[in-house]
Structures are given as structure tokens and as C-alpha cells.
Amino acid sequence: MYKIDWEKYLSYERDRKPNSKTGHQHEAGDADMRSEYDSDFGRVIFCTAARRMHDKTQVFPLTSGDSVHTRLTHSLEVMNIAVSLGSSLCRNEDFISTYGEKESFELEQKLCAILKTAAFVHDIGNPPFGHYGEDTIQKYFDGLNLCSNRKDWGAAELAFCEAHRADFTQYDGNAEGFRILTKGQYLGDLHGLNLTFAALGAYLKYPNEGDKDKGGYVGKHKHGIFATEHDVFQKVVKACNMQKSDGKIMRHPLSFLVEAADSICYTAMDLEDGINAGKITLEQIYQWVDNFINHAVNHEVFSQEMLVEDGKFSLKKLLKLKDVPYKKKNDVNFRVALIGYFVNHTLNTFIKNLQEIDAGIYNKELLEDDSLMVYEALKKYESEKLFTDKSIVSAELTGRSVLNGLLDIVLEKVLIVDPGKDDRIYRMMSDSGLKLVHHECGLYDPDNDSEFKLRIKELPLYNRLRLVVDWISGMTDKYALDTYQKLSGIKL
């Protein structure tokens, strides 16, 4: 096995330095003797942003049912798979042979703790209505034609620059999540939850401050860092050795495992949600996927893998499944077998490509690196057969109206046309969110908290937009709907 120098990626440093001379937060005699990486998980599990995930969309928006997945239950499942991947990696015979038993055990403790935190918070920045919400925000700001010569923005027109435009027109929940983790859980300073740089590095699926590049390096497929987090991002990159010799920034190796755990869970569990909701059936999945793969993959691959029935690929045979009389058990067996297949594939692919991952040149999602195309087939099935369901489309359209309506009310009527004329809208925003943005602009001193007052007119346009998007992004689906209805006069 290729030997990665893992320690160069596992910085336990934090943006706000601890008082301890050793660099660790615990002194001799402390009752709490967790590692720095274990402490990270304690910080995220108790934060308010984590609690909000209980009412954010996974597949079925605004559902009244209690059995479908939310972002919170999804995140717990991703966390479980990510830790399993880390543990399996470090217990692999070749891994132990490469690093030795003692170092393998120590690395397992570190890697699993980092993966646990990064996987749990991977969706913490998602706005209401999930990826459809992201798309709605992007299109809204793209339609505003953000530029520096908008005459109807008055004094704000000189405060906006092209470099900041992508933060809104290419808005992404991953970037919002990084802001939440590093600043958004505001407690009087600009360090947020103050996680270790290793945890933040493993979280960063898209370590990219520039425009998204779908055809380029996998870490640049989305705009993953807002301008406000430039400084802390650069510290993470430096501490975790994520900058290559040519100056380009690479993904943290553990981020590939977090991404894979996420893909495994949403692929398998979205299907299970669809089955439980009566939208699709297991037999429909088998038939569609088998047809797709049989038309797309060379049959020699099937023969080599012994996956054929009558000369054709069979997903059921790949997963080694047999029907039992109790239907529900068939559904659960499918989910368990599918996750098992994906976990094994992820681990094998990760190990096979460790050298390229370490060099920052591996350019695929681990699950996509599969000659059988099972992941691709299931993704396409969900896109064409599940996500087009009338109830899902209807709720997504509701979400678009809600988010567009909120942005219309707050931005065009208050922040852009005549900022500060009517500050009542700000009284609905969180006190900590308001203070954070004022603090970033040097308009608030937490040491003189009693003297805080709104100074909206003095906030640059970028920061006013940042304030609003932070507020709306933090809403749960139902809270966004309720807030829109109240602000638009639909209900009291």
C-alpha cells in the first residue's frame, strides 16, 4: 500500500489558540481528557445549527410524516458510514503492514474522530428546501445583475466588486456551512465553533474561492468558500498542507471519504424513502438499473465478475439477494446489501488511488470510479423516477416561491432601495447574526455589547447581502414558509 504521511494532514491547531503551552486544550488534572478531535464533535453536536437540520429537506419537503429522512437523520447515517470507512481503512491488513500495529491503532483513533465530525456537519449549511433552495438563491441573485454601477442602489453601489459576485450567483451550501463552522455560531469573536483545522479540511468538499469549474479538478466543481472566510480558509490550507508545489489547492484526503459516505447514504436511503412512501418499488429499481447497465457496460465485465443471468447483468445477483416472503425484509436487505457494496467499493478505490489522492491529482468521486456504473445507474434512476414525483415537485415549487418571496421582501424593499429606512425587518433576525456582520465590518465591539445598535446604512452592500442570505439559509423549511406567509400578509 502507498504510504501517506497522515500527520501532515491532521493538524490539531485551531484559529483561536488555546491557552495551553502544549497546544492542547486540556491541562493536567482536567476531568475532560478527550483528544482535540473528539472535542470537535462535542462542539458541533450541541450547536443550534445542528438542531436546525431536523426540519430541513432530504427528499420530501414539508412532509408531515415521521419516517422519512431529514438532514439530521441523514447526517447521522453519513457519520456512521464515514467512521466505518475510517476504521476499515486502518484495520486493513496492508495498512497495518505499512504503518505497524501501534501507529495503525493511533491513526484509527484520529481519522475516525475527524471523519465523525466532518461527516456529521457536511450538510450543516444547506438552505431550506435543500439543493433546490441553493438553485433558487443562485438564480435570484443572477437575475439581479449584481454589478458596481447599479444606480438604484444609491450609496451602496461602490461597495460591491466582481470578486464577491460568485458568493451569491454561485451560492453553495458547502460554503455556507464553512461560514457557520468558522464564524456563524457567534459568541463575541470571529472564530465560530473554533474546530481543529483537520476537521475543517476534511469538511471542505470544494476548497475553491474562485468560480466553479465543472470540467476541472473535482475540488473546483463548486464555489466552496465565501469572501468573508478567506483568511481562515488560507489557515486551514496551510496547516493541513493542502497547497501543492504549483500553488493549486487540493482536497484533504479525508474529504473523499466524507463525500463517499454522503453519496452512499443519500443513494441508498433516498430509494428506501421512495419505497416506504409508495412512490417506487424494489422490482422497478431492479428492472430499470439492469436495463441501464446492460446497455451501457461491456458484457465482458459481467462475465469476469460473475454477475450475469442469461448473459445479462443482474443487480440482485451483484448484491447476492434472494427474495423472502416478508416484503419489508426484502426492502431492508436491499438497502443493507447496497450500502455494503458501496462501502467495499469506496475503500478499495481509495486504497488503490492513495498516491494520486496524496498528490492532489485524483479527479473523481470515489463512487463514480466504477466500471460497473452501479452508482451512476441508481443516481439516474432517482433523478428520472423518484425526484420527478408530483408531491416532490409541488413542494419544491412551493420552496422556490417562498425563497424568492423572502428575498424580494427583505432585499429589494429594504436593503437595496433605501437601506435603513425601516429596520423592523432586522428585529426578526437573530441578534448574534446581526452582531456577527457588524463585527466583521468593524461596527461592533463585543466588549461594549450594551452599546450595540443597528448601523445598516454603514454596512457595505456585500455584507448586507451576506446578512440576509445567512438569515434565510439558516431557516428550516417550515420556518421559512411561516416567515414568508407572515411578511407577505398571508397570515398573522
Please, could you describe this protein's structure?
This protein is mostly helical. It folds into two domains: 6-253, Hypothetical protein af1432; 280-388, putative deoxyguanosinetriphosphate triphosphohydrolase fold (Orthogonal Bundle). It is built from 21 helices and two strands. The protein has helices at 36-45, 48-52, 71-90, 93-99, 101-120, 130-143, 162-169, 173-184, 197-203, 230-239, 253-276, 282-296, 299-305, 315-318, 327-352, 354-359, 374-386, 390-416, 431-440, 461-473, 477-487; strands at residues 308-309, 312-313. A two-stranded antiparallel ribbon has the order 1-2. Helix 3 packs across helix 15, helix 5 (101-120) packs across helix 9 (197-203) and helix 18 packs across helix 21. The protein starts with 35 loop residues before the first helix and ends in a 5-residue tail after the last helix. Residues 20-24 and 153-159 have low confidence and may be disordered.
